[in-house]
Design goal:
102 residues, mainly beta, OB fold (Dihydrolipoamide Acetyltransferase, E2P), five-stranded mixed beta barrel, 1 helix
């Protein structure tokens, strides 16, 4: 894993889920720009209460920055082309979005 800081926008909806042992976590996707003008999707999971609550206050298209443990991966699309993917276990989040719950 890589200690990373990524910035981008929420892509789709933020979802809260529960594990088999009762642990609560949040998942979402972040669309981050690359240096060549393309975008990459980062799959995010958060277990920390503050990070989870902040992410739950965000919606599709909201800007944010996340730090955490990043794992790069590769997947193959329907045309057989290798595509990059990122998985991030988020430890902290920064956003300009105001959370009305706080």
């Amino acid at each position: 894993m890589i200690d990373a800081l990524i910035a981008g926008r929420i892509y789709g909806q933020v979802e809260e889920r529960s594990g088999q042992n009762g642990s609560v976590y949040v998942t979402c996707k972040v669309r981050a720009a690359t240096d060549d003008g393309d975008f990459i999707i980062c799959n995010v999971i958060a277990f920390n209460d503050a990070t989870r609550n902040t992410l739950l206050g965000l919606g599709d298209g909201d800007s944010l920055s996340l730090s955490g443990a990043l794992t790069p991966k590769v997947w193959t699309d329907k045309q057989g082309k290798a595509r990059p993917a990122l998985d991030l276990i988020a430890h902290a989040v920064i956003t300009a979005h105001l959370n009305t719950a706080e």
